[in-house]
Amino acid sequence: MHSRWPSGWAGHWACCGWRRAIHPKRRRVDAGLVTLGGCLLGARFIYVLLHWHYFSSHRLETIQFWRGGLSLAGAIVGGVAALLVIAGLRQVSPLKLADALAPMIPPLAVSAWLGCWQTGCAYGALTPYGAWWGVPTGDESGLVALRFPLQLVGAFSLLAYFWWLEKIVSLRRDSGQMGSLAGVGLSLNLLLTSPLRADPAPDWYGLRLDDWAAAVLCIISLASAITAFLSQRLRKGASEGAEPPTDL
After folding, report:
1. What is the distance between the alpha carbons of residues 145 and 132, in angstroms, rounded to a whole number?
2. Please, what's the b/e burial string for 173-209 (b: 16 or more CB within 10 A of its CB; e: otherwise)?
3. What is the pTM of this model?
C-alpha cells in the first residue's frame, strides 16, 4: 500500500496543475493559503522563541498553537516572507501579488481585533468609574472590567480605512498600489493603537516587538507605494510622449 503513494501524489499534483491551468484564479487562493500559513508559522515560532524557558521543557506544546500563544510581530514577518517566497517561485512582482492578496487583509485584521476582545489581549486602559465610553473587557487573567474599547476602535478604524481605499480612491489594479496602501493602513493602525494598549508584552529598547514589526512593515509599504505610483506616472508620461503630434 505504501508503494502507491508516489503515483498517487504525482496524479494529485498533475490534477492540481491542470486545474490551475484552466482556473488561473485558483493561484490567488493558493497564494493566500500559503501566506496565511506563513503568518501562523511565524507567529507561533516567535512566541515559542520568546517563551523558550517554558517550551524547552514542554517540547510537544510548541506545535499546539490552538491552545493559544501567537506573536503579532512573528505573523507580520512570516506573512511578508511567505509573500516574497511565492513571488520568487512564480516569478511575479511582489507588488502585483500583494494586490491580489490585499482583499483578505480587512476580514483577517478585523477578526483578529474582535478575537482579542473576546480572549483578553490587546486591551485598553481602565476607564474612570461611571465613564460612558467604558466597555466590559477581559484581560489575560479572565477579569472583566470597564476599559477603553481599544479592540473595537482598532477594528472599526480598519474597516473605515479599507472602505475609503476601495470606494473613494481610484487605484490601478495589478500595479502594487492597493497592496502597498493596504500595508500602510494596517501598519499605521497597529502603530497608532499601540500607545493605548494596557496589556503586557515583550519589548526591545522601550518599544513593543509588535511596534518594531509594524514600523518595518510601514516603511516597506510606503516605499512600495512610492515605487508603484512613480512607475505608473512614468509609464503614463512615456505613453503620452510616444503619441504623434497633431497638425493644427
Report:
1. 13
2. eebbbbbbbbbbbbbbbbeebbeebeeebeeeeeebb
3. 0.82
